[in-house]
Amino acid sequence: MSVIDMTKQLEQILNCSVIRSNRSLEDIAIFMGPSYENATIEKGQYIEGKHDCWLVMDLFADYCEVIEFQQKALSATEMQLIAILLLNKTSVTLDNQYAGMTKIEKQATKLGEWLQSQMDVHATRSNIPEHLIMASSLYHEMVPILLIADSSMQSHSSYAELDKLLRSFLSEDVLLIPLPHDEWLIWGPTSLLRDDDSSDSDYMNEETLEDSLSNIAHGLHDMLASEWIGESQLAITYPIVPAKSMVETVGQLRESIHIGRKFHVGNNIHLPWLLQLEVLLHAIPEVHRQKYLEQSLKRAELFVEPEMLATLETFFNLDCNVSETAKKLYIHRNTLLYRLDKLKQETGLDVRLFRDAVLVKIILLLYKVTKTH
Amino acid sequence: MAGVRLEGIYKKYPGSERASVTDVNLDIKDKEFLVLVGPSGCGKSTTLRMIAGLEEISEGKLFIGDRLVNDVAPKDRDIAMVFQSYALYPHMNVYQNMAFGLKLRKFKKADIDKRVREAATILDIVHLLDRKPKALSGGQRQRVALGRAIVREPQVFLMDEPLSNLDAKLRGQMRAEISKLTKRLETTTIYVTHDQIEAMTMGDRIVVMKDGFIQQTASPEELYNNPVNIFVAGFIGSPSMNFIPGSISEQAGEVKFKASGVDVVVPEGKAAVLRSKGFIGKEVVLGIRPEDLHEEPVFLEASPKTIVSANIEVAENLGHEMYLYLNGIGTDSVIARVDGRSTLRDGATVKLAIDMNKVHIFDKETELNIFEN
Question: Does B130 contact chain A (CB < 8 Å)?
């Protein structure tokens, strides 16, 4: 039985709400009031507030893991017994949970659990507690990548297998952190972005940081598809110092995958710097989005014809360049102009004008989200 | 090398009412080059991705050789993939890109070197082995992607629109090279494209798909000469087959096809089929390819009972041949392909003989080819 199962049983026995949570030291100070000044917080300690009481399960640099009992009518002896029971259970569960893991996997798993606990309480600005810093490289800039395995065969994947694969593929300095729900956080060294032999190119253009990150993500995606368990979703972002803002970064990467999948079904690589408009649109309440889209589509069903959708997608991807779009679509320039004129005639929107192009782009994005519903 | 067998394969996405792929049965022979072709959304890529293991199979069985592989991970299927969005590993040079898969599979260094150099020789990229991907042109990158697949010496190559990112000239060149390469390697290949020219020039057999259903599986010649329905007839061939709605009647022992501006005699062999299948007096659609409309006097003299008269809307001279866009044959515009030396010009009236031995007649209701079903 897990600690969570036990808290449920305690809820029934004590007839009150019993919740496991993470509390910052500030929360503890407020909860204890003036008595916090001289207090020493210890594992297993029982703290009384005005209306409820907390049992400290574990201590970290800037927060405590506690179990909250939403009533005060427990005697000190009862609380001591509960503490012994829960702490004993936790240590047994943890020992079982980490059994068979290598040291590095155990550390990575603990860090992953901490990350998730911070995400759960939206503590995005938390720094990693020192005891969870698994490598000194976490104090240096690294490239963060979030990976979600799509395949139903993911149960076959193990930390050791993926870790080995990534070390062969990216670098020996890679750090892999498992997260719940088949997510993996990968930290790659910034050396991946450096070019050691930039002299050998006839074709090479000046590559931006975004290009380099995108290329790494695409290469990694292809490699995982053919050498791991199949399809996956990936998000990558700019290098950061992991020890400082790991939680925030995981949040950003998760949001990119979530929004990227919603707006661009079929895409597997999600790049935060290309999803800014989508993030904004996602923040608009559903009811308003729906209403706007209905009004827009009423003007013309032409928007949603596959040929027109493909034409507009390509047109926008090529920065509204008529010649390039015609070339890419293998159609005559005049055929493209005819399609754009037809759209203008039926909707009043001329995508060759910046203002109308923005509106049509927004309509298409909203249509995709609505369609996927 | 091995064949691939699909038995009653379905793909249904959660929440979608209609299956994306429905009851696909295919027996792909060892060493065969099979092309899946169809318009966007027809299910061809989904079918290929199921073979690759990148999409789960909702229903049915998939065999590679004699092995059922429904639940086998992509890396263990002994296949190699080259996809439209192929991504090279940006931080590795060409040699490392090609060697990576073999290194993972613990091949000896000498074997890896031999295979990489052999593949590089075949693809004419030996001089690029030390280069990083970003220092390569589009065509060179495509060759490296192929090289990465070749060195694995897989049982099956899977290619999903691998040429779509190349310009028209390079596409033509690479099309021929892939054909040569797969013949030389004698590897079973399944190739997806929306381009019917690629399909016709590369495939031993072609599978035409629409709305998730296979429409016809046949050799390129069979598909061109004996399409089973209007969709296949219209999809294969450029310019497309002309379709003229009309009716079948019998007068004085002659079976005739009549439509606006058309009154032609059906040859006896085809007439017998129409009689036996009860199409006399029925509405049908006549299909005629642009090259089966003739303006040469010798044809007009030889076929006095199949002559139609039309106005030339536009005469497009491509040098070696001329396309005539015609009015007056049925209700829609009809295209004829005539000799480039023809002196016909826009606005002229022209007499054309329909080669009735080459026409197809489709049931208006079922859209099936009456002579093929």
Answer: yes
pLDDT at position A131 is 77
Judge whether B264 and B286 are in contact, CB under 8 Å. no
Domain count, chain A: 3
In CATH, what number is assigned to the domain containing residue A120? 3.30.70
In this prediction the pTM is 0.78
CATH 3.40.50.300 for domain B4-225, yes or no, is: yes
Those residues of chain A whose CB sits closer than 8 Å to some CB in chain B are 151-153, 156, 165, 168-170, 192, 195, 197, 200-205, 207, 212, 215-216, 218-219, 221-223, 225-231, 306, 310, 330
Radius of gyration in angstroms for the set of CA atoms belonging to chain A, rounded to a whole number: 27
Read off the pLDDT of residues B88-122 as tens digits, 9 standing for 90 and up. 999 999 999 999 999 999 999 999 999 999 999 98
CB–CB of B89 and A169 under 8 A? Answer: yes
Amino acid making up residue A209: L
- Domain with residue A288: its CATH number is 1.10.10.2840
Residues of A in contact with B136 (CB under 8 A): 203
Beta bridge partners of B83: B160
Give the pLDDT confidence of A121-175 residue by residue, as tens digits: 888 777 888 777 777 778 889 999 999 988 655 555 688 889 999 999 999 889 9
Tell me the CATH number for domain B242-363: 2.40.50.140
SS3 string, B124-177, reads CCHHHCCCCHHHCCHHHHHHHHHHHHHCCCCCEEEEECCCCCCCHHHHHHHHHH
- B188 touches B3 (CB < 8 A): yes
Structure tokens at B367: 């859209």
Q: Do B100 and A225 touch (CB under 8 A)?
A: no
Q: Could you tell me which residues come within 8 angstroms of residue B82 by beta carbon, excluding any fewer than 6 positions away?
A: B145, B146, B148, B149, B157, B158, B159, B160, B162
Q: Please check whether residue A264 lies inside any domain of the structure.
A: yes
Assign B120 to helix, strand or coil. Answer: helix
Q: B116, B101 in Cβ contact below 8 A? A: no
What is the dihedral angle through the alpha carbons of A239, A242, A248, A250, rounded to the nearest 10 degrees? Answer: 80
Q: Are residues A149 and A74 in the same domain?
A: no
Structural domain span for residue A79: 3-97
In a domain, A202, yes or no: no
What residues form DSSP beta bridges with A177? A185
Q: Does the beta-carbon distance from B89 to A153 stay under 8 Å? A: no
Secondary structure (3-state) at A268: coil
Using DSSP's 3-state secondary structure scheme, residue A241 falls into coil
Within-domain flag for A277: no
Is the bond preceding residue B239 a cis peptide, omega within 30 degrees?
yes
Whole-complex ipTM = 0.78
Total Cβ atoms within 10 A of residue B98:
30
What are the start and end residues of each CATH 3.40.50.300 domain in chain B?
4-225
Q: Which residue has the tokens 């759960």?
A: A120
Residues of B in contact with A310 (CB under 8 A): 40
